[in-house]
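As the next step, I selected for study one protein, both as residues and as discrete backbone shape codes, as given directly below:
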Amino acid sequence: MYVTAETAIVIESTPEAVSEYASDPVNWTASNPEEYFGLAYESRDNRSATGVLFYQQELVAGIQER
């Protein structure tokens, strides 16, 4: 059996505010802090950017990955 669904959301905010929220690493792991931890960027402001390395630790099926 195949199920097809469509959905849409309306974000009542500016593109700049959405971009700021989406690019903040604190928000990336907020949905499941028990499995995602240790996210860090090698940058002065701890933010993503072109050419910036990052490290993230997480649990996958109970196994810690880095």
